[in-house]
Each structure stands twice: as C-alpha cells, then as structure tokens.
Amino acid sequence: MPNEFNEEELMAAARAAREHAYAPYSAFAVGAALLCEDGSVVLGCNVENASYGMTICAERGAVAAAVAQGKRRFTAIAVAGSAEGATPPCGGCRQVLSEFAPGLRVLYSHGETHVNVAIEELLPAAFELP
Length: 130
Ligand code: THU
Known about the structure:
Layout (H helix, E strand, L loop, with lengths): L6 H12 L12 E6 L4 E5 L12 H11 L5 E7 L10 H10 L4 E6 L2 E6 H4 L8
Parallel strand pairs: 3-4
Antiparallel strand pairs: 1-2, 1-3, 4-5
This protein binds tetrahydrodeoxyuridine.
The site of tetrahydrodeoxyuridine (THU) has 13 residues, from helix 2.
C-alpha cells in the first residue's frame, strides 16, 4: 500500500485527465486521478449532459471506473479544475469518496499549485447507514 506518493505526479495525471473533460455547457473542465492501494491510478473527468442534472463529476467518474475494475481501496485523489482559484470536490463527491476511503488524502488544484487535505477535513460527518 503506497502510504507515500508523489503529489506532483498524481496532480499531473489529474491535469492530463482534465483534457478529456466533456463540458460544453459549463466550459469548466475537471480531471481526477485516483491512486488505488495497489499503486494503480484510475482517471476520471467530468461528463456533462444536455439534461444538466445528469452530469457526472470527475471524482465520481474515477471512483465508478475503479470499482468496476475491482478496486475499492484508495490512498489519494488529485482533482484538477480549470479555475485560477481552488477546485475542491463538491459535497456529493465528498460523500462518495468517504464511502470507500477513510483517511483518503485529497489534493485539489489552486491555480498552478494544490492543497492537500484529508477527506475527513472536507466532510467531517459523512453519512453512514446505522
Ligand atoms: N465538477 C466536477 O467535475 N467535480 C467537482 O467536484 C465540482 C464540479 C464539474 C461538474 C460540472 O461539469 C462542472 O464541474 C461545473 O460545475
């Protein structure tokens, strides 16, 4: 399990994945790179739809792709937005990330730099079925 990882490499992968974003409605491209405990990296990007609410965020796309590959344990995710400011994961994606990844490190872009926080800092009281 890679407890240590190269933050710059993971963020570079997210920035590369952002190139595949399908965002004709918002023009806001997002890429995600999910580092799995086996060391592999699964990518995601936002996929928008003419029915706006059907839009899939980059983070949830990456989680769905990883789970479909039999990967359910994650070490970190990098999220790269196209804003000059910060692109932290939306609330819904925080909940989805929490499901699979206690202790997950979340790297999100802030212009050319990034912030590194634990998922519990972003979502302190994630919903769990009792
Ligand atoms: N978006 C993401 O992909 N991830 C987030 O965490 C925030 C928002 C996308 C959804 C939509 O395609 C665009 O950014 C603007 O909201």
